[in-house]
Each structure stands twice: as C-alpha cells, then as structure tokens.
Amino acid sequence: MHTQLHEYLEGDHTASALAEELRSAAADWDALLEAVRTPERPLPWLEGRVMHAVAAHAARPAWRGRLRALARPRYAAAVAAVVVIAAAVLLRPAARAPSAARPDPVDAAAIFVQFALEAPGARTVSVTGSFNQWSSRATPLTDVDGDGVWTALVPLGPGVHQYMFVVDEVEWVTDPRAGRYVDDGFGRNNAVIAVAMPSSPAS
Amino acid sequence: MEPDSSAAAAPDADDETIIVRIRDGDAEAYRHLVRRHQPRLFRYAVRMTGDADVAMDLVQNAFIRAYERLDQCREPGRFGQWALAILANESRHHLRRRRRHQPLDRHTASPSPGFGPARQAEQRELLDILSGALARLPVDQREAFLLRHMEGLSYADISGMTGASVSALKQRVHRARETLEVLLQEIR
User: Fold this and answer.
1) CA A63-A192-B14 angle, 5° bins
2) Which are the contacts of A22, defined by CB distance < 8 A and separation ≥ 6?
3) Contact at 8 Å (CB) between B124 and A40?
4) How do residues A91-111 score in pLDDT, each as one tens digit?
C-alpha cells in the first residue's frame, strides 16, 4: 500500500493532492470506511434489560455498595495503610466536604486528610476524586515553600474514596504512595483512600 | 438539595447533567444515556465480534458495568467515550478468551435507512466483504482500526482507552490497512 494512501487516510492529504494513480484507490477506501461507519439499528429491548439491572441496584446504588463493600473488616489492613499514607491530621466533627452534594448522612462528619505529591516544576496540581465529583479544579494543592511538594488539606467524609492528581491541568497522575488502587476503565489506576471515624471524637 | 425533576425527565439533557442526576439518586435517568449511546456501542461490538448476539451481550454488560462504575467517570461530558472504553476492554477480553476467529457472517448488517435500495445493496455488499476481512485481522489491529477509522478517535484517546502506546497503535492501524488493502485489490 502506497505511503501517500496511508497519509491520506490519516488526514494528512486531501484526495486532490494525491498522485493521479492513487485517487481511485482513495475513493475505494472512502467507500469502505463509509460502510464501516454505517449506523446500526437501535436495539429497543436493550434499554429495558439494562434498566432492569439498574433498577436492581437502585435501592443500593452501585458506587455506594462498592464503597461499603470495601469498608468491610476484611479490607481493614489495606484501609488502615491508606489512611496512614494519607495522613489524617485533624479530626473535626460536623465539617462537611465542599463537594458533598450527595444526600448521605455519613457525610455529617469529616476528617481532614493531607494529600501530597512531589511534582517539581509543575505549574498547578490539584486532586480530583469521587469526593469532589471528579472536578479537576475544585481542590488545588499548593507548594508554598517551592520545594516541589504540593499539598492540600481536604475534608473527607467516612468511607472509601477514589482519587487522582492532575498536574498542569492536563496530566492525570496516580498517587504513587497509595496503598490501594482500582482500575479506572481507561487503562490506569485510581488511588483509593479509606477514611474511618474513630469511635470517640477527639476533644 | 432536592433534585430538579424537570432535568431528569429531559432526554435532551447533556450527559454531564444526566450523570449528576444519577449521582443524586435518580437511577432512572440512566435510561437516557443508554438510549443515546447504544447505537454507537452496538456498532462497535458488531464490527469487533462479527456476531450480533455476542455484541448485544457485550453492550448490555458494558452499560451495566458503566453504571456500577459511574463514580469513576471523571469526565461525565464524555460518557459515551468512557462507556466505549469499557466495551472495548470487554470485547478484547471476550475475543481473547474465544481464541479463534469465528466467521463474521452471523450478523445481518443494516445499511443506513436513508439510502435507496441500490445504495443499500452496495453498502451491504461492502459490509459483508468488510466483515470477512475484519475477522482475519488480529484482535489488536481490528480494535485499533475501528477506534481510529470508525470512531474517529485520536491516537492519544485510543492510547488512553487501551493502554497501548501511540506508536504501537499507529503500527497496528497501518498493518490493518495493509491487510484490508489486499482485500480491496481483490474486489477492484
């Protein structure tokens, strides 16, 4: 296959820019790709089947169910490790995560967690996760002393949260020091942090 | 805060709005996302597997998994591509488990209803030829070719979806085109 045809299919050339002898082949490719892109008829029953499965989760929304499952005692060791890494530095009952839009009574209290990432040379760093609706701008980290370590204290409700760092607003970085990770569906891993409330609040 | 019920009922609300509704507890709003994105996902699964029945199951499972993982959807405005990534992973795993290429002749292709009979027949013929050709491509090449030339995704996006490097993906698409070109020459 001629290199120019590859380049044409990559959008590097228009058909008119191709050598005369390649234009017919280019037209064949156009027809083939049009066939590839032919829409498929909708599957009317699919919606019903999916929604049936969704309804089965409705009383226990899947993401909350998964969080509860992760918080069970059998994960206690992993959970504890993540909490230590995240360095819960201050217990403050009744604090509420800024992004706590979900009506969930367990968010009535929060622990301030320090997130930290070594990113020398970065212009901005933020933490985005399930606790702030994956907003990449809601929770910026700062590097006040210029040592390349960016930090932020973030109030988190009890439970298991997933998060990633965003460097310079475009680069998603998995926390290299997290103790637990889950597949994010994009071929990378979200870090996991567990926040547990002690039985008696600190005074 | 009480959700705005008018937004949940609006099928033309954008994906991000719908996902906010779902996260607020309105599971029924997920129906709009399924309705909106299932043609695209089904087309991908059919082209990948060549088997409409398998494709239906894969798409159904992908939507259910997407719902279960909705808290991991970092860019709700791009739900369709995120769901496609889940489907692509499921399709790849399915095909690797199967470990053999099955004839891609079980699916009855559906040419665009807007075309006249002659054009539909032409498209059907091309689709049949294409299905046979795609079946002969290795799974990785087929996946890269479809994501690039059917979905029109950038190599960077495909890399994010599949975990393969951009250079590896370019090579896969290049090889897929070479193979398909041989087939095209046979029918010219």
Assistant:
1) 45
2) A2, A4, A5, A8
3) no
4) 333 333 323 333 343 345 677
